[in-house]
Write a structure and sequence with these properties.
Layout (H helix, E strand, L loop, with lengths): L7 E5 L4 H12 L3 E8 L6 H11 L3 E6 L1 H15 L10 H20 L3 E3 L8 H12 L4 E3 L5 H4 L5 H11 L12 E4 L4 E4 L29 E8 L2 E7 L5 E2 L2 H14 L4 E7 L5 E7 L1 H17 L2 H19 L6 H12 L6 E8 L2 E8 L7 H4 L11 H20 L8
Parallel strand pairs: 1-2, 1-4, 2-3, 4-5
Antiparallel strand pairs: 6-7, 7-12, 8-9, 8-13, 9-10, 11-12, 13-14
């Protein structure tokens, strides 16, 4: 730490306008800055960002490849849970935050930094997700949020103020025209919000999307895949046309993003309820995740006991809320993940899917741990089930209903 420094801050850095200005502003305020960029598949140029951060005055720069960790330890648990927020959102941004925050805190501890910081705004979910993770993971590191500090947000009230500051301080700014919306991307998805999208009645322009083609522009011929599962997560994907195979978690997810994306799979346009209490409109594209979720639900139907699934679904609702609200590292979320993982021991097998113009169609499924007995369920074979047993089953289940009708009167009354 330099003499007279207020301390060292590890800043979650993207190389963009906001975090570049924040980096210089922290130095201006008397902090030593370590820039940290997490590669979770967003496609940023890490080395260009490193050079830029060092030029702007960062003491050190860490560029960390977290892609494999992100898939195996964060995305896969949500696959096991079939996590989905408010029936439509697959949590792509929310899942990435605990992954990034963990590595950021590890660097802060290793470097003896007293502070961690992010560039999330004061109205969104990400500030909550980052900071709850910081405080769950460390005991003596303070979080700094510039967009909630009056000395920062009163000085920078809009993009133009940031541009003026960048010009004054010699911060390189891309000369390309800024899209009239904001976006955040990773392996799981790309999200778009703000700008023209703030009006929920405005149609999202076709040029918005980056991971997927429009379903109308997708090929006129379907593509078929086999997705192999073990312990409730994909272990192999096979293209039934060209026989391409992928087997590592990262390769599987990247490949499914490409194949599903070119078939227009995974787009949604929604209004959601932010944890902080306001509604927001967002457009999302989650191609690979959409395919995996559909296939996982299907292989579960073959392999999970009915009552176990009911309990798992109750836990999944809790887990989804925990993820969205930034509680990944909480004791309850750690417990919930363990319970859900235990339900997936027998979720093993192969699901065949067809991708066509934005749709995922299940073609078939098989499993060595299937609970499906074709002979037992067949209408053409008596098998080991005695149909007469159904009479007693119905009578026992009807007892409560008949007593209710007898004592309180039936729904349809007999005329006197």
């Amino acid at each position: 730490m330099a003499d007279g420094s207020k301390g060292t801050v590890v800043l979650a850095y993207s190389g963009g306008l906001d975090t570049s200005c924040i980096l210089v502003w922290f130095i201006e305020q008397g902090y030593d800055v370590i820039a940290f960029m997490a590669d979770v598949g967003q496609g940023d140029d890490g080395e260009a960002a490193r050079a830029k951060a060092l030029k702007l005055g960062a003491k050190k720069v860490f560029i960390e490849d977290l892609r494999a960790d992100f898939v195996e330890n964060y995305i896969w648990p949500t696959v096991q849970a079939n996590s989905i927020y408010e029936d439509r959102y697959l949590l792509g941004t929310a899942i990435a935050r605990p992954c990034i925050a963990k590595r950021q805190c590890e660097i802060a501890v290793a470097e003896g930094a007293g502070f961690v910081a992010h560039g999330a705004t004061g109205k969104g979910n990400d500030q909550i997700r980052f900071e709850l993770a910081f405080y769950a993971l460390t005991t003596d590191i303070e979080s700094l949020a510039p967009w909630r500090l009056p000395e920062f947000y009163k000085r920078f009230q809009g993009r133009q103020d940031l541009l003026d500051f960048a010009k004054e301080k010699g911060i390189p700014v891309p000369v390309t025209k800024k899209a009239p919306w904001s976006m955040d991307g990773n392996l799981m998805h790309v999200s778009y919000e703000s700008g023209i999208l703030e009006d929920p009645g405005t149609h999202a322009p076709e040029g918005l999307y980056q991971m997927t083609v429009s379903p109308e522009e997708a090929p006129d011929k379907s593509e078929e895949l086999e997705i192999h599962f073990a312990n409730g997560v994909p272990i192999r994907v096979v293209h039934k046309g060209d026989l391409t195979q992928k087997e590592t978690p990262l390769e599987i997810f990247e490949y499914l993003n490409v194949v599903a994306g070119r078939n227009g799979v995974g787009r949604i346009d929604i209004v959601e309820n932010r944890f902080i209490g306001m509604k927001s409109r967002g457009c999302y594209e989650t191609p690979g995740g959409t395919v995996i979720r559909a296939a996982h639900i299907d292989i579960e139907a073959l392999t999970i006991d009915r009552e176990v699934r009911k309990i798992r679904d109750l836990l999944s609702d809790q887990f989804t809320q925990q993820i969205y609200n930034g509680m990944w590292w909480s004791p309850e979320s750690t417990f919930t993940r363990k319970c859900i993982a235990d339900t997936q021991t027998n979720v093993e097998g192969v699901v065949e899917v067809s991708l066509y113009k934005g749709n995922v169609k299940i073609l078939g499924r098989k499993s060595p741990k299937s609970l499906y007995d074709q002979e037992l369920v067949s209408m053409d074979v008596e098998g080991e089930f005695d149909p007469r047993n159904s009479t007693g089953f119905i009578k026992v289940n009807a007892l409560r209903l008949r007593e209710n009708a007898r004592l309180r009167g039936g729904i349809i009354s007999n005329p006197k």
